[in-house]
């Protein structure tokens, strides 16, 4: 009679049913490989902290791609190198779960270098276990980013050189330099003592997460007798004597003792409060009475320098049009010209459905600088209106088949003390001489556009000045 | 319902939140950045997550992770960013996860420019990532549809456990139009396959691995069956003046708006034209085209796109030589004028 004293952790499935083939009781790892030991330490820790039911393991690409065969937890399998990003998505959705990113050296330090650095830098409240065995095991012994100088692999058949491949990357050192991680340690698994140290590190990294302390990272120097083409004892010896020379062991950072537990939980807003939270119209606006002809169908182009408020003027016209129950569309010419140069926008207002939102032949052109007038004057339909700021434009429209409306908008706004109100002066003039805008609608809507009182006062003045100027224009014509 | 004047890009985010989306992972890129900005503004207010990822690749993998927990989750980008996301989209399709991806297309290839284009039709409708998968693809042509089709994308993504792409362009993203927003979705579908970090889902696995060739083939056949069912159930399209049309113009997205105006102009001249607009690009409304192609009165199909001729391949496949299929495209961010479209059609009429 013998008593079985070495049993597998209850943190593993009883039978590895996901494993293909007849053997569903042992792992797929090679004899002498460190993965199985590390798996067991993680599974035991999850059990011991009572969180195995709430744990989610992210399997990487590499030898541990099949970690999900074993862990009796929620299991994700991720794309190569992306486990920390997947873990981020999981943890953000389930802040109460214990999320573990389990990765090898190619996965974490090469193809996934960006993901691990940024997950660490954000301080994602996850635990990362990084198995560094200085080689790509799964794909057949190719060079890893952690392969040592001189080490022969199938892609460094003459040995890794500094000149060609650079130095093996030290991820623990890198990550310990970041501000957010609370715990960063490098251990090895080469003998009983070092396995015990690793066990403690694994438990600490998981305990930190249980206590919502933040990002924990444990790099484990591990054996790969198959990839290294040595015996298991030789592999252990190599980890101890050779790997540790380039990858020193120890705790590189530990601020977990002082770290305050993170508040990760988010309160979901009840459905009925969502429309207000996302600024939807709440249907509480007074229905305004307006008068515009049934035939309204305007195509408007507004153009000027960036900063003159030409895009805003277009948005306002669309807003008023919408409140007049018209179909409206507004589209900017977007791109580099918005940052300094000439900007313009297209506005359509119509009782009919709007097909193309682009204005090719404007019925109304508003030009607030000379290039705009020169560029778009010829597009205007015969009989169309051209509003142009004659305080800034030193030429006049050349056509005689359009209605030319020179407006010293900038000058008037300047007299009010703020040239930025020039577009509202222009709005006043447009309102006065156009049948598609109802003054009542404009007046009632402006307070919603200019919510600050001093801005509203200024712009109401500018609007009134525009109306007054339009009246004087009419007298002249 | 009261209307709100809003940019297409912003309507996407409001629609998403109304559809129950509570996580947005993305990376800034013109002309899609307003989506990320609006998500950053609103997600925290409803108890959701907004995270600006370190890369497009990370963002789509965060979607993979969050979606695997059963949450409604999205990302958005523009063409070059979508190219980067293709790896993750393939994994999402392989693992049969829902996930909504918005592509506000811009000019390519390469860095191209930030002007609107439709050059991503192939990479979105035909795959883009590796493997035998398809995205559900919805093509809005207004700010209203930016909201509506985003909401639909969440519904279909959940229903079929499949990535759903809202394929928009720089125009619709930047354009402001009035939108009527519906009420928030109150009940979300139950997801027994998801991993929520509870004992009950320990048997669940989010993975795209099938080592055994027979298993992987079976998985792939199942996916193809799913796409067939989607093809039967989810085709959406708009017909405009096609009842007596002799010439059928085909266009999606913003181009359909231009083509609609061209139809009006041509009808005024007595030319019998109509428009078919696929709203779903996958599933493609092939049967509608087939039916139209069988009509004796129909003399010509004319496809307009802002690319080098991508959807036209699908039109040709279903019309199958029964009727001539002509194509006119603009690229680089250039957009045809209505007159240009009208002139093209008149030219094409002379050619047949």
Second rung of CATH, namely the architecture of the largest domain in chain A: 3-Layer(aba) Sandwich
Strand order of the largest sheet of chain B: 3-2-4-5-7-6-13
Can you count the beta strands of chain B? 15
Helix content of chain A: 25-40%
Radius of gyration of chain A: 35 Å
Low-pLDDT regions of chain A = 335-339
CATH superfamily of the largest domain in chain B: Thiamin diphosphate (ThDP)-binding fold, Pyr/PP domains
CATH superfamily of the largest domain in chain A: Thiamin diphosphate (ThDP)-binding fold, Pyr/PP domains
Shape of chain B: globular
The CATH topology of the largest domain in chain A is Rossmann fold
Work out the strand percent of chain B: 15-25%
Estimate the mean pLDDT confidence of chain A. 94
Structural class of chain B: alpha/beta
Domain count of chain A: 2
What is the count of DSSP helices of chain B, taking H or I runs of 4+ residues?
12
Number of domain modules of chain B? 2
Category by helix and strand content of chain A: alpha/beta
What would you say the CATH architecture of the largest domain in chain B is? 3-Layer(aba) Sandwich
How far the N terminus sits from the C terminus of chain A, by CA atoms, comes to 117 Å
Quick structural summary:
The complex is a heterodimer of chains A (477) and B (352). Chain A is α/β, with parallel strands linked by helices and 477 residues long.
Descriptors:
heterodimer; A: 477 residues; alpha/beta; seven-stranded mixed sheet; six-stranded mixed sheet; 13 strands; elongated; B: 352 residues; Rossmann fold; 2 domains; five-stranded mixed sheet; 12 helices; globular
Structure description:
The complex is a heterodimer of chains A (477) and B (352). Chain A is an alpha/beta fold and 477 residues long. Chain A has two domains: 35-254, Rossmann fold (3-Layer(aba) Sandwich), CATH 3.40.50; 297-476, Pyruvate-ferredoxin Oxidoreductase, domain 3 (3-Layer(aba) Sandwich), CATH 3.40.920.10. Chain A is built from 16 helices and 13 strands. In chain A, the strands form two sheets. Chain A has a seven-stranded mixed β-sheet, sandwiched between helices. In chain A, strands 9-10-8-11-12-13 form a six-stranded mixed β-sheet, with helices on both faces. In chain A, β5 (183-188), α7 and β6 (216-221) form a beta-alpha-beta unit. In chain A, α1 crosses α7 (192-210) and α15 runs antiparallel to α16 (453-476). The longest helix of chain A is centred in the C-terminal third of the chain and has 24 residues, at 453-476. The radius of gyration of chain A is 35 Å and the shape is elongated. By secondary structure, chain B is α/β, with parallel strands linked by helices. Chain B has two domains: 4-233, Rossmann fold, CATH 3.40.50.970; 237-351, Rossmann fold. Chain B is built from twelve helices and 15 strands. In chain B, strands 3-2-4-5-7-6-13 form a seven-stranded mixed β-sheet, with helices on both faces. In chain B, α4 (79-94) links the parallel β4 (73-77) and β5. In chain B, α1 (8-18) packs across α2. The N and C termini of chain B lie far apart (48 Å). Chains A and B meet through β1, β2, α2, α4 and α10 of A and α1, α3, α4, α7 and β8 of B. β2 of chain A pairs parallel with β9 of chain B.
